């Protein structure tokens, strides 16, 4: 039985409050913590892991700890969580049986440095830009038309394979790329990809028994990734909405790529395990020199589509 909101919480020596919130693991869909507040806990709310819960009754939760021990559990930092109303988690309702109320999901580390006030302020500014954009597009299109450039198929050095120490583990490579658009000066932008040294099983999942060809806009063959070469590189953008993602270990699914925006989850072979992503992670052309230097052709693909459509 899962703990219900408003259930009384008892320690080994006395009642200390009630369950004010529950925290759910976004990958396993299980309740990982209860939040205890009110009564003996005062106005503070503390996160208590389910491992400290001895029994769960219809209207009460019994803890293994004493009321004194309760103070060693961390205080709830509300800005590190979102409610299930603020984020989409596939199949969560099939696993969650707590009564309606405030159910929290941990905000991934990538997002914790973005304050809510800052986010909404930037969001409001973005809306203003979108409103003004239709007026500016015709002028920009006229100015930029002579400068439209073909897709950039240059090989870029991003680092050395010596950085990768373990098989089937995603390693992020950050690099800078020079870009020039229309009449603007050339500038460097920060980019990243994920590279792994793949086991035969992962290579089979990526290549499905055949080499992978890459073509330019005219259909000319640019490069072929050989299925027996162990290094695989993925675009640093999630195919769902183009957000950044990260490599994460989990006790249930093992090692996975996790996108914090809408919790799309991929395995080492790039396959979608859960979430709204319409396709697998996007592999890129890769070649590895004898000294371990890694080069790629930097490509970006349209987000939100099942088909892989190159846009940059």
Topology overview:
Elements: E1 8-10, E2 15-24, E3 31-37, E4 46-49, E5 53-56, E6 60-63, E7 81-83, H1 92-95, E8 103-106, H2 116-144, E9 155-160, E10 171-179, E11 187-197, H3 200-207, E12 212-215, E13 221-225, E14 231-235, E15 246-250, E16 254-258, E17 265-266, E18 272-274, E19 286-288, E20 293-297
Outline:
The chain is of the alpha+beta class. It has helices at residues 92-95, 116-144, 200-207; strands at 8-10, 15-24, 31-37, 46-49, 53-56, 60-63, 81-83, 103-106, 155-160, 171-179, 187-197, 212-215, 221-225, 231-235, 246-250, 254-258, 265-266, 272-274, 286-288, 293-297. The chain contains three helices and 20 strands.
The figure for the number of domains is: 2
Task: Extract low-pLDDT stretches.
Answer: none
Kindly estimate the percentage of residues that lie in beta strands according to DSSP.
Answer: 25-35%
Distance between the termini: 51 Å
**What characteristic shape results from the CA principal axes?**
elongated
Helix content: 10-25%
What would your notes on this structure say?
By secondary structure, the chain is an alpha+beta fold. It folds into two domains: 8-111, Photosynthetic Reaction Center, Chain H, domain 2 (Alpha-Beta Complex), CATH 3.90.50; 151-297, Rieske [2Fe-2S] iron-sulphur domain (Rieske Iron-sulfur Protein). It is 13% helix and 33% strand. It contains three helices and 20 strands. It has helices at 92-95, 116-144, 200-207, and strands at residues 8-10, 15-24, 31-37, 46-49, 53-56, 60-63, 81-83, 103-106, 155-160, 171-179, 187-197, 212-215, 221-225, 231-235, 246-250, 254-258, 265-266, 272-274, 286-288, 293-297. Strands 1, 2, 3, 4, 5, 6, 7 and 8 form an eight-stranded mixed β-sheet that branches. A four-stranded antiparallel β-sheet has the order 15-16-17-18, with no helix packed on it. It has a three-stranded antiparallel β-sheet with strand order 9-20-19, with no helix packed on it. The radius of gyration is 24 Å and the shape is elongated.
